[in-house]
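Researcher: Please predict.
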Amino acid sequence: MGKIAVVYWSGTGNTEAMAELVAEGARDAGAEAEVITCTEFSASALDDYDAFAFGCPAMGSEELESDEFEPMWDGVEPELPGRKVALFGSYDWADGEWMDLWRERAEAAGITISDTVIAKDYPEGEAAEACKALGASLA
C-alpha cells in the first residue's frame, strides 16, 4: 500500500475532523496516512507521497480559504497532473457549489480528481463514512 498525504485547512474544526476520517479510512485499508495542515505542506513534498487528499471548507462566496490554503494550492496545482488526488471539505450554507468549482478548476489544470466528499457542518453518519471511503479509495 502507499503513503497518503491528507492536507487541509480548517476554521471551525469540521474539515479537520474530515481529514482525520480520511486518514483513518486510508489506514484501515492498509496505507500509511499523514494528516498535514496546509501551512506545513508545499510542492517540494509531493514526491514523498503516492496519493493526496486536499481539504478546504467553503469560504466567502463559495471559494477556497484565501490566506493559507489557496496559496498552498496554487503552489502544488501545477505539479498534480498524473498523481492520485481527491478533494474534501465542509460547508454551512448553500449547496456545496465551491466543491464543484474547485473540481472544475483542478480538472482544467489537468488534474484527474478521483473523488470528492462534502459534509454539511461536522462530518457525521453518511458524511463520516464517505470520508473513510475516500481514504480507502486512495489506499
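Model: Helices lie at 14-28, 69-76, 97-108, 126-138.
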